[in-house]
Amino acid sequence: MSGLWGVLQEHFPELLAGFLVTIRLVAIAFVIAMVVGAVVAALRISPSKWLQRIGGVYVETFRNIPLLVLLFISFAGLRRAGVPITPWIAGTASLGLYTAAYVAEALRSGAFAVGKGQIDAALSLGFSYASALRRIVIPQAFRSVIPTIGSLVIAMIRNSAIVGVSLLALPDLLKEARIIQSRTFETGEVFFWAAIGYLVLTLTATVAFRLLERRFEVRR
Amino acid sequence: MEESKGPNGPLVELSGVTKSFGDNVVLNEIDLRIGRGEAVVVAGPSGSGKSTMLRCINGLEPIDSGSIRFGGRAIEGIGREIYGIRAQIGMVFQQFNLFPHMTVIDNITLAPVRVQGTSVEEARRRGRELLERVGIPDKEDDVPADLSGGQQQRVAIARALAVDPKLMLFDEPTSALDPEMIREVLDVMRDLARDGMTMIVVTHEMGFAREVCDRLIFIDEGVIVEDAPPEEFFKATGSARAKEFVDKIIHH
Ligand SMILES: Nc1ncnc2c1ncn2[C@@H]1O[C@H](COP(=O)(O)OP(=O)(O)OP(=O)(O)O)[C@@H](O)[C@H]1O
Ligand SMILES: [Mg+2]
User: Fold this and answer.
1) Which residues pair with B89 in a beta bridge?
2) Over the stretch B143-165, which tens digit does the pLDDT of each residue have?
3) Across the interface, which of B83, B97, B100 has its CB nearest the CB of A126?
4) Do A120 and B60 touch (CB under 8 A)?
5) Which residue's alpha carbon is nearest to atom 7 within ligand 1?
6) Which of A70, B43, B73, B78 has the most CB atoms within 10 Å of its CB?
7) What residue spans define the domains of chain A?
């Protein structure tokens, strides 16, 4: 059996399994990217020169190393150095930490747009500088950068395919598609369905972020 | 016991306070004492150091020399304890500085709940009382952007009052408002003063000064050049500069 529908019917279980792995990969990496991104952004806007510098080094490092190289370092490199790292950890951490650098930069610019008056108001109510950042500045920064984060997540979904083709034995959507392709040589059909899978994810993310944006809009 | 430390001593005491930004001396050896329950209006030309003085009093701006005491206690070099002092000093800004991502009631209850550990229910109950007091009882679930400037500034006053401050600082609270909204904010401030709140108000509203304050202070180039009850001030301003300035803002 062949043709687009034939390929889908025949290989649906593998494609679905790969699709679900990609969702899990992206979801975990998303959480890592947001948490680490927020922490790095907080370092970047802290009053301490040293903390700012540490945040800066993080951003420059992860923005300037290609994701594929990060994957090699985190898996093969650490393995060779005797660290028992699993493909899952290497894949989610690389994708998450890489995206975190961009999230941090987005949050930082969002935080600068928040304005000194907000910090003055929080400090004058008795908040420490750190709590003023945490309770007032970062939440507003998050809201104002929802559209930017949306684009980063879409890029992350696309970048997740790199994880599958790297040396990691992670059976994500692209990896499954390649396995099927190498067995059946139905190249066009298989990758068509893989593309549809990625499209479903990116479109869902687009809609979700539009809704978030509307829900959390901050009017000044 | 030092006079300034007793319960009857001044609530705020500045002695020889000097503050510069680079080469720009903004406050020059300021001496000022403000007693409990006093309402003081501060006026002066743009750039004379009025905002800076307020910001130094609650430690938002560090001073170079001299000392500032609040309730008899020096506020410089006390590390994290400054947060406790600031919670006793309410501040109201020209631009309101409400938190735009929170509702009115959340703006008001944030500090009582997060800084002082008041329960949410208690803080909300108090918050509603305060909203009533500033004349906007039905706005608690709105966000600041849905309110007029005058309403926003009254929410800002309620927010500052919610932590039960002993002193209120106002930095040109009506300068960003349309004329028809100035009155509603000044009325709230007048009631506060009548209820015995100690307050320092930077404003050019000389009608308010004449009607409400106990003392009018005129600052010029970081120096206090006049400090007198308003009647005296308007009768005969000692400093020519102050007279010229007051004439200008009264007759514009
Ligand atoms: N953070 C700062 N850094 C550098 N210079 C400052 C800073 N804040 C204030 N200044 C300067 O200090 C001087 C006094 O400013 P301040 O804001 O206290 O004046 P003001 O009396 O409140 O004036 P206005 O009526 O315009 O509000 C001005 O020359 C101002 O430029
Ligand atoms: Mg000012």
Assistant:
1) B167
2) 999 999 999 999 999 999 999 99
3) B83
4) yes
5) B21
6) B43
7) 2-219
Token representation of residue A48 = 């301490």
Q: What is this structure's pTM?
A: 0.82
Look up the domain containing B135 and give its range: 100-165
Nearest Cα to B192, choosing from B176, B206, B212, B178? B212
pLDDT per residue as tens digits for the range A109-135: 998 888 899 999 999 999 998 899 889
Q: Does B235 touch chain A (CB under 8 A)?
A: no
Beta bridge partners of B75: none
Residues in A closer than 8 angstroms to B160, CB to CB, are 124-125
Tokens of B90: 């309410």
- Compute how many other C-beta atoms are within 10 angstroms of the C-beta atom of residue A64: 9
Residue from A116, A118, A124 whose CB has the most chain B CBs within 10 Å, to mutate: A124
Classify A2-219 by CATH class: mainly alpha
CA distance to partner chain B, nearest, from residue A218 (Å): 6
> Least CB-CB distance to A126: which of B101, B156, B163?
B163
3-state DSSP helix/strand/coil % of chain B, to nearest 5:
40, 25, 35
Instruction: Count up the domains in chain B and report the number.
Output: 1
